[in-house]
Amino acid sequence: MMTDIPHDVLLMAPVMANLLERLEGDFRLHRLYEQDDPHAYLAEHGGAITALVTRGDVGVATPVLEQLPQLGLIAVFGVGTDGIDLDYARRHGIAVTITSGALTEDVADMALGLLLATARQLCHYDRFVRAGRWLQEAPGLTTRVSGKRLGIFGMGNIGRAIAQRAAGFDMRIQYASRRRHSSLPYAYYPDLPALARESDFLIVAVAGGKETAGLVDKAVFDALPNHALVINIARGSVVNQPDLIAALQSGAIAGAGLDVYADEPQVPAALLAMEQVVLQPHVGSGTHETRQKMSDIVFANVSAFFNREPLPHAIE
Ligand code: 8YV
To answer: Which top-level group of life is the source organism from (predicted)?
Structure first.
């Protein structure tokens, strides 16, 4: 049961209305993103805040955490913890929860959707039909997806769900990741450029953060065949964005399908201008069904924390 005195919860960024209403209903909610001077706001209210809600794509800066001496929970709306200083959280006994299990399928669907859209030029031909160009010219040919060699970088839950889907397209599935998963029937490459050399398509599905920052760089684009397509549904930080743009401009690779970027919501003009690129605004998990589940999970974790119950989705 909740106590009568409302608990103070800090919200780092807008979340869906349904979650916002539930948090506001049960807690004293502090919306940091609405404050003109967040530092001064936290100097006044930070001492009372015991739980924080943020989004996977937003995280929380360590100086903010330093202004929250009583913080016991960071509840992430998403699965990415790359925007959170986990060492700081561990040292200060702050639990971290994520919306594990809720978004795997949607993000994998988006990866396949982007692959199909890029290879078969779905967005390009949508523009072609709408502009009335079909009346004047015959559409050109595109690239087959079925039966091709798919390299997946990262074999966590999302990587596996992508592989399952790709198997339905009779693709030859191979992957690079920190370690081999011996239970999986896919070829393992310890080295990313080696995987790239043998792949028609490369899907980036690895977690973001310091360990993976910039790993998909010029060496990888040079290793990929010129007809290769690169799909990123993970984090913009994993791909060296200037190297990606250079590879697309020089023809080192043939196209890209992107849901994530280095500096969201900024998308470089060079990418906007390219017809061989399909762009999405970080909406891999953005379906009604999944966002509702994510909202329920965040709320369940915050409630469990204040009820002193075990957290259903805590990481380690
Ligand atoms: C975001 C994500 O949380 O799970 C993640 O880490 O990046 C996304 O699901 C989502 O965009 C919420 O805004």
So the answer is: Bacteria
